[in-house]
Amino acid sequence: xxxxxxxxxxxxxxxxxxxxxxxxxxxxxxxxxxxxxxxxxxxxxxxxxxxxxxxxxxxxxxxxxxxxxxxxxxxxxxxxxxxxxxxxxxxxxxxxxxxxxxxxxxxxxxxxxxxxxxxxxxxxxxxxxxxxxxxxxxxxxxxxxxxxxxxxxxxxxxxxxxxxxxxxxxxxxxxxxxxxxxxxxxxxxxxxxxxxxxxxxxxxxxxxxxxxxxxxxxxxxxxxxxxxxxxxxxxxxxxxxxxxxxxxxxxxxxxxxxxxxxxxxxxxxxxxxxxxxxxxxxxxxxxxxxxxxxxxxxxxxxxxxxxxxxxxxxxxxxxxxxxxxxxxxxxxxxxxxxxxxxxxxxxxxxxxxxxxxxxxxxxxxxxxxxxxx
Amino acid sequence: xxxxxxxxxxxxxxxxxxxxxxxxxxxxxxxxxxxxxxxxxxxxxxxxxxxxxxxxxxxxxxxxxxxxxxxxxxxxxxxxxxxxxxxxxxxxxxxxxxxxxxxxxxxxxxxxxxxxxxxxxxxxxxxxxxxxxxxxxxxxxxxxxxxxxxxxxxxxxxxxxxxxxxxxxxxxxxxxxxxxxxxxxxxxxxxxxxxxxxxxxxxxxxxxxxxxxxxxxxxxxxxxxxxxxxxxxxxxxxxxxxxxxxxxxxxxxxxxxxxxxxxxxxxxxxxxxxxxxxxxxxxxxxxxxxxxxxxxxxxxxxxxxxxxxxxxxxxxxxxxxxxxxx
Lengths: 373, 326
What we know:
The structure holds 2 protein chains of 2 kinds.
Chain A: E1 30-31, H1 51-76, H2 90-98, E2 105-107, H3 113-119, H4 123-130, H5 156-168, E3 175-180, H6 187-198, E4 203-209, E5 212-213, E6 216-217, H7 230-234, E7 238-242, H8 246-261, E8 267-272, H9 291-297, H10 302-312, H11 318-341, H12 349-352, H13 360-372
Parallel strand pairs in A: 1-7, 2-3, 3-4, 4-8, 7-8
Antiparallel strand pairs in A: 5-6
Helix pairs in contact in A: 1-2, 1-3, 1-10, 1-11, 2-3, 2-8, 4-11, 5-6
Chain B: E1 3-4, H1 6-20, E2 24-28, H2 44-48, E3 53-55, H3 60-72, E4 76-80, H4 91-98, H5 101-104, E5 114-119, H6 134-138, E6 144-146, H7 151-163, E7 168-173, E8 182-183, E9 197-200, E10 205-209, H8 213-226, E11 231-235, E12 238-240, H9 244-254, E13 257-264, H10 269-281, E14 290-294, H11 302-308, H12 312-325
Parallel strand pairs in B: 2-3, 2-4, 4-5, 5-7, 6-7, 10-11, 10-13, 13-14
Antiparallel strand pairs in B: 1-8, 6-12, 9-11
């Protein structure tokens, strides 16, 4: 780690400064590859030219949207617990995780079905978790990836810890941590990016700014013009990206991850998107925002945008689209069947993973629940 | 074999754990070059290097949160919080993450981490440096809460805590750091966690305590012996999980139970001890269970702190009353 091991070689003459210190000026770069209609706005980054990558991102986004819709209908019919839809944000989480290597570690939030699916978590596992069964988080896929953090921002320090472990062991791996705009109001966020800066950690922090922390708009959360500029205080680069432009997100995430992997430290990316859904199935966004605001944002739909691009590129036909929709539907049907067929956990399971070995003090409690549960 | 203080035993255990297992790292504020404000990590930086002895920025929540991330990645982090009064920003991490990760992932991700902090009054420290809030941590499922009361137990229990595959809150009585010396062999042997230690056998009354109050309680037992009262002294040591069995067996034998703790009375861990005794040894009781604790007040500043803490005399009086009751 970058720690002083003695007196500083070049002590700064902090006490000699007369008047105000000029520390920094900054501008926050903003990147967009495709305009809202799906047309490239300039030269395409490498990612935009790779058909396999782009089509895979598109497919995952469509699957995510269909899964969200099914999850909501399952919740409405009493077959799933409270569920946070990612409607309108599919590009961000899919494209970020698509830029990762399998050995990297993803630390995300609850609103990131697309990310978990892209990392290899199965539809059934996600349904299982949101259906109220911890076994869903014992996923077969990326074993080192963190389960979704339900509290806001308290997982950001975990990313700093994961990245510290990678750096200490000199592994060329990266911790990728996503969070919502609300997280940037919390100390955990700043504490973690501050450490990432001073220790030059191999981490990428992505703020998914969807405009709303439940009912509080970003304009009421901060006086900062951007959330990305909070990186300045941590001494790491910060940038904004059009979060409804999957190619721009993929490009920014790829650059940040590459930079981290090369030992050059952390990056903060603010992805600007919009939550087209309620906060969760337990929320009614009509209480705090106008329908017109929501409908206006459909013009920036990330899925329509990418479909337009891959169609123009000659990579995607009407038949491909129909086949994909049918394929997603069938995958979700299968997953739902498997999920609904799973018997509920045994009552003693609430004891059995609490500690590596159940302490004696708990054995009688477990026995009592086994008998009466 | 040398006689060493409790804080030296902590240092010896940390060094032993780091020498034995390269995945052990220590992190905290002022712990590297400065060796910790109590010198518990003295010498570790020179011996194990800056990749394993990490001075963090001044952010306790971050220390605990980083430890969660490091532990999930297979390291064994030992975080130091300078005083228990600065521990509360770690509680979010302990309650919401460290204690839950194994359970919520059904064992896929685990959290073998230790958070150490000095606890308790009696060293003329400023505000926020003297509290005993161990019961708060003992209420959290998935954690272990350990409080050593002698150099030898500090060495053995800290080794056990570091080797444990689950998160441990390890609270060190500040007042005992340099209060006395004891022979401690650096043999790498962990003491058993999850059990109470019977420090002194007796037949008339069971005195149950932990942490710094073990010192006054043992002294009280000596005084009681002079009066012909035979006191059994139990050091709970691991509050969570609580080995109620040892206490219940003792009270079944003596018929009397006096619980001593430095923390305030209401909802202190003594309430749990009393409840266990009432549930499982009521018919053996010859006298009401008694608690000798601090009152339900904020720890006063230094001039009154010794008045605040339970005294040897109060312990003697409580035990004497119990014996006279029947």
